[in-house]
Amino acid sequence: MIEIRGVTKAFGDIRALDGIDLDVANGEFVCLLGPSGCGKSTLLNAVAGFVTPTSGEIIAEGKRVTDPAPDRGMVFQEYALFPWMTVRANVAFGLQMRGESGIDAKVDALLEKLRLREFADRFPKDLSGGMRQRVAIARILALDSPILLMDEPFGALDALTRRNLQDELLRIWTELGKTILFVTHSIDESIYLADRIVVMTYRPGRIKAIVPVTFPRPRDSASPEFNELKRTLSAMVMEEQRRHEEDEIGAPASPPAGPDASRVR
Amino acid sequence: MRLIRAIAVPITLLLLWEGLSRAGVFNPIILPAPSRVLVKWIDYTRSGEMPRDAVSSLYRVMMGFLIGTVLALPLGLAMGASQRAYALFNPVLQVLRPIPPIAYVPLAILWFGLGNPPAFFLISLGAFFPVLMNTIAGVRSVDAIYIRAARNLGANGRALFFRVVVPAAMPHIMTGIRVGFGVAFIVVIVAEMIAVNNGLGYRILEAREYFWSDKIIAGMITIGLLGLGIDALLARLSDYLLRWHRGLEPSK
User: Which CATH topology does A2-71+148-260 take?
Assistant: First the structure.
């Protein structure tokens, strides 16, 4: 369970997040959807503990978030695998940090689950993007954290690999009952995956709408209800996208990175 | 074909040099023919003098390099990781860094007398700065995403530093080690010209006393071959240690 209570985050004059209230129930799959600059990554980073809110608080599994911790496993868009470690060592890392025993068996089971077995001794540089993201997911699953935070994890992948990994993620989610907070700017992806879609506004980052996706999985992206929802969400997201573009054209000299910058510690 | 292309220029130059020498264009004391240098080199090797000199020089390089690196690595890691350590040590290091090790020769003799100690001192000084500067740069350029991922996975303090920061900085550190070794190799020759009575540098200087130009050149060639061999070994070590590194082409 994640409870977000009145979270505001300001970077200088920019209010990346403005009074966000959101509860994510145990075992729920929630997507944060919006154009760049809407603060969705900032919100995710705040839940992860990489970003400290200016005001408000975040409670994860009953504990107030102050730092990054393994109970909220994060999957990054850039994979963030340790390139000097083999696949096996990457997956084992979190368990070693926790000083667990029987690491090898756990790692083997995870590699099996994500069909990474034969890549166990490869280095990340020798893997495709899809494979790398599987490793990143295995690395987080090793922690057995109740909450998974995913920052556009499939954004850099081609469409087919992406669909594959989305299915794999849904399979894992169903099997393990994780609570997932998933950032994306793809409307299709959010409808395909989420129980609820949280649409965010462009600067200041607020919740524009919370849209439940009620039809059952696996969802057919060609079905009428999928497309109807897609139209509704599209209208909302495009409105924010236009504000984003006008802002950029209106103030071309402003630094592009700002609140959505991925390099916040 | 590739071999022919690679050796065409050196062979031509050698033949030209040999021809000009035989025609009496150069005084053999100024520039002896390559054939004479080769004969001398074989003599120098077979007498056992060259291997002994090479071993002495290598020993000095190793000792000096080890001392320099053992001092530079922890300091570089500390200065790269901590702003405070950097602010504390950087000013004095910036002042010392541009002073070439050779400028320390007189002091080295005053402080350490003759024999190996001043040589170790000078060589370690030569290796110290390249290793230090590259280590600092390496630690500072560690991508923040690795730190975030590691903290998310529960790493803190020592584990974060030694299992994430240090390996991530390794490509830079290896560059520093290779450059440092190169400098150490330059400095050993100079150091041997002042304070010892064996080693390749000493032998070159000794040969000059007797106008043995062929022996000077034979010694120089030995230095070149030794340097090449060591760098090739270091390149292989580096390829092995950095086999995970993206975009690293194996050294030729």
Answer: Rossmann fold (3.40.50)
